[in-house]
Amino acid sequence: MEESKSPNKSSKNSTPTKTEIGLWLLPEFWGQGIMTEALPLITHYTFKQLYLHQMEGFVETENTNCKKAMAKLDFKKERTLQKAEFKNGKPINLEGFIKMNTNRL
Q1: What global pTM score does this model have?
Q2: Which DSSP category does 14 fall into?
Q3: pLDDT per position as a tens digit, 49-71
Q4: 8: which of 47, 52, 53, 71 lies 20 to 30 Å off by Cα?
């Protein structure tokens, strides 16, 4: 029996695909565990429902709590983007994190 493929969903045997997540949380909400709760749900859906190969996420360099949450969920820091975005009219650096779907390797 041949598996049908949706254009928005890859199968486990198709070419590896990736997605980028972007979660911006206002500083007054940092340190409340929101990302720690949200990221596992997003990761599970991305890998188990969409069968994607890799997730990439960017974190403001100053947001140490979010970087800790990414590390706790096995996202690995891959790079730093210098002056990648503007916040309040000033350039900010972003750190790029990657998580691989180990079930697809």
Answers
A1: 0.70
A2: S
A3: 888 889 999 988 988 878 888 88
A4: 71
CA distance 86 to 49: 34
69 and 97 Cβ atoms separated by less than 8 Å: no
**Mean pLDDT of all residues in 32-38:** 84
End-to-end CA distance of the chain: 24
Element counts in the chain: helices (H) and strands (E): 2, 4
Output the CA–CA distances (angstroms, integers) from residue 103 to 16, 28, 42, 51, 53, in the order listed. 12, 36, 16, 9, 9
Strand spans (E) along 1-105 = 18-21, 54-60, 76-87, 90-100
